[in-house]
Amino acid sequence: MSKVNLEKLKKLRNDTQASVADVRHALEESEGDYDKALSWLKKRGAQIAEKKAQREVGQGLIESYIHQNGKVGALVVILCETDFVARTDEFKNLAHEVAMQVAAMSPKDVSTLLSQEYIRDGSITIEGLIKQTIGKLGENIVVREFKRFEL
Q: Which pTM was predicted?
């Protein structure tokens, strides 16, 4: 496919935050099929995450989440490779979503957390959510630890 539909490109880019080059390639590979392109981008993100899994993480955030009733909260330490990525909205959003997951689902440890279905989208796990973010940001991301509090 030599010509990519600009509207599909914009929509897919907006929905995934993937690079324009990756979105264009996904649409070309899928012959313009949006769902196939979305699937291609998810696979691409997972491949990128695998390549970066052994890279050292030394920066990150401590994120807090307090449920609206004020009786449940969580602190999460989530790490990445550089301070630049730690300051991005995408990384901050991931940290918030993971903290909210901990408050809502009360996992016993990090491996349990990673295997849980994401509360906002049951079709992926928290590990899948993290891998998607790794694919977008291009850096290794690790949940180091968390603590859940409840009255």
A: 0.72
